[in-house]
């Protein structure tokens, strides 16, 4: 991890990796969409509306995964003062909030035909809604300070405080009587979902993950460049005209 | 502590911090009274809002009392560290021999004595106003007595994180309310269980467990937040 602590090396490595990762995400998303909408069979009970699962479940997995990543990055930032870890945690948060929102909305759209209601206050839905507010609170806190470093450190502590919600979400369907379906993939005893549906689901999950990593790398690179611009602006205001020599094209 | 005196034992320093915070809170004239007044006022708004039908109020009464208690507890939180932060005494406190975690624990205790405890004592009276079944009053007081320490402790984390932030008060509520939800669910559940005869003991035990978990963990998180606010 400390090999990537140098922002310049990170920029070089991520710049080389990014086109491949992006192409990989696009291919997987396209392939996964075809598999989900065309190849996967309709459910024996739910018919065609089961296809929402191929968006709803991967986005839910991403919402949890991203928060766990944020917590790990925050821990790295606080324990080892890793310079890029804070940035990584901050830049992952909007993506996590986005996936949580997709999960909640797609879940509502699925719930209306299946359960007859847009929303129900069971343990799984409530804890995911709490996760959404934890993401929003994190974003509000990080941007509430004039000094970006202060905001990043405060956010790191908040991310670690909120990580207790992740196991609650995962096990909520086991610990409480919920309307939401119990675990069908990640459970002891193996998945209870048929292979012809499990495969498109896993393809979409990998596609969403690749998409997340692509967007995350782009965001971190943008943040590093923004930090550089800010430093340059500060130096410029210190001594106006300082960079004019460098900016003039070589004669 | 006066320079030159023998260093006080941690327990004595702890007591000193609690007494200092209590004295400051009481000197500011009725911090506790204002919190209780808000509590009563907010509860009284509900019959105006949902209509005075007794069965309705009795049904939702325990929820109303708990939610307004939560909001009342939030009110005095941002002042927990702010006054000391602004005049520089927080830095001195952080450098004192008593560890910052213990100091924060002492502040949380003082906060609870001034907000949580009065709320717990006034709650049955509000239960009377809303017409909650008297079988639930004991559980209400017990649940609030067990739940409000967690509220104070979790609140110190939020207060420390938002030190010096823009619009800190509202931000504090946004950060803390999701973390308060378990206490709310268990507390309201305890009263409902007592009324329906199912027994409130499991709820009270889990509330106590939450308080026990918050006791070491919240000061750890708040101390880290205070240290990074002082950097």
What does this structure look like?
The complex is a heterodimer of chains A (251) and B (231). Chain A is mainly α and 251 residues long. Chain A has a domain of 173 residues. Chain A is 75% helix and 0% strand. In chain A, helix 4 packs antiparallel against helix 6. The longest helix of chain A is centred in the last third of the chain and has 44 residues. The two termini of chain A are 42 Å apart. The model of chain A has no long low-confidence stretch (mean pLDDT 88). By secondary structure, chain B is mostly helical. Chain B has one domain. Helix content of chain B is 83%, strand content 0%. Chain B is built from nine helices and no strands. At the A-B interface, helix 4 and helix 5 of A face helix 8 and helix 9 of B.
The gist of it:
The complex is a heterodimer of chains A (251) and B (231). Chain A has 251 residues and is mainly alpha-helical. Chain A has eight helices and no strands.
Largest sheet of chain A: none
According to DSSP, the number of beta strands of chain A is 0
Give the low-pLDDT segments of chain A.
Answer: none
What is the rounded Rg of chain A?
A: 22 Å
Helix content of chain B: over 70%
Q: What is the average per-residue confidence, as pLDDT of chain A, rounded to a whole number?
A: 88
Key words describing this protein structure:
heterodimer, A: 251 residues, mainly alpha, 8 helices, B: mainly alpha, 9 helices, elongated
How does the SSE layout of this entry go?
The complex is a heterodimer of chains A (251) and B (231).
Chain A: H1 7-39, H2 53-80, H3 83-115, H4 123-142, H5 148-162, H6 165-175, H7 195-238, H8 244-247
Chain B: H1 10-27, H2 31-50, H3 54-75, H4 79-87, H5 89-95, H6 100-130, H7 137-161, H8 168-196, H9 201-230
Helix pairs in contact in B: 1-6, 2-3, 2-6, 3-6, 3-7, 3-8, 6-7, 6-9, 7-8, 7-9, 8-9
């Amino acid at each position: 991890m400390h090999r990537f602590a140098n922002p310049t090396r990170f920029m070089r490595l991520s710049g080389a990796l990014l086109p491949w990762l992006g192409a990989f995400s696009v291919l997987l998303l396209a392939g996964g969409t075809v598999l989900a909408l065309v190849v996967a069979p309709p459910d024996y009970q739910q018919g065609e509306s089961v296809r929402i699962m191929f968006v709803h479940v991967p986005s839910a997995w991403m919402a949890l995964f991203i928060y766990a990543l944020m917590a790990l990055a925050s821990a790295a930032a606080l324990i080892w003062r890793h310079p890029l870890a804070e940035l990584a945690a901050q830049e992952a948060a909007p993506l996590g909030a986005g996936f949580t929102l997709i999960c909640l909305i797609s879940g509502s759209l699925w719930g209306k035909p299946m359960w007859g209601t847009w929303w129900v206050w069971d343990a799984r839905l409530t804890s995911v809604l709490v996760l959404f507010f934890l993401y929003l609170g994190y974003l509000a806190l990080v941007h509430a300070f004039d000094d970006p470093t202060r905001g990043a450190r405060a956010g790191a502590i908040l991310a670690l405080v909120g990580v207790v919600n992740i196991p609650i979400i995962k096990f909520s369907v086991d610990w409480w009587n919920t309307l939401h379906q119990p675990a069908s993939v990640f459970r002891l005893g193996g998945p209870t979902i048929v292979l012809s549906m499990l495969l498109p689901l896993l393809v979409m999950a990998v596609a969403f993950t690749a998409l997340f990593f692509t967007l995350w790398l782009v965001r971190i690179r943008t943040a590093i460049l923004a930090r550089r611009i800010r430093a340059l602006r500060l130096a410029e205001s210190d001594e106006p005209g300082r960079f004019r020599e460098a900016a003039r094209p070589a004669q | 502590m006066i320079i030159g005196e023998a260093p006080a034992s941690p327990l004595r320093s702890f007591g000193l911090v609690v007494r200092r915070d209590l004295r400051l809170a009481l000197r500011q004239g009725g911090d506790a009274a204002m919190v209780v007044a808000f509590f009563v006022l907010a509860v009284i708004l509900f019959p105006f809002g949902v209509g005075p039908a007794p069965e309705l109020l009795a049904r939702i009464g325990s929820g109303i009392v708990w939610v307004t208690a939560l909001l009342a507890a939030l009110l005095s939180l941002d002042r927990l560290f702010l006054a000391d932060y602004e005049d520089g005494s927080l830095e001195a406190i952080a450098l004192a021999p008593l560890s910052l975690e213990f100091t924060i624990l002492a502040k949380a205790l003082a906060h609870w004595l001034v907000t949580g405890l009065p709320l717990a004592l006034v709650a049955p009276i509000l239960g009377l106003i809303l017409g909650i079944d008297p079988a639930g009053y004991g559980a209400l007081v017990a649940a609030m007595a067990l739940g409000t320490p967690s509220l104070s402790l979790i609140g110190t984390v939020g207060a420390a994180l938002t030190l010096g932030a823009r619009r800190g008060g509202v931000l504090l509520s946004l950060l803390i309310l999701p973390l308060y939800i378990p206490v709310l669910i268990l507390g309201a559940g305890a009263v409902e269980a007592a009324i329906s005869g199912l027994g409130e003991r499991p709820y009270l035990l889990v509330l106590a467990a939450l308080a026990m978990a918050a006791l070491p963990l919240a000061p750890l998180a708040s101390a880290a937040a205070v240290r990074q606010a002082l950097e």
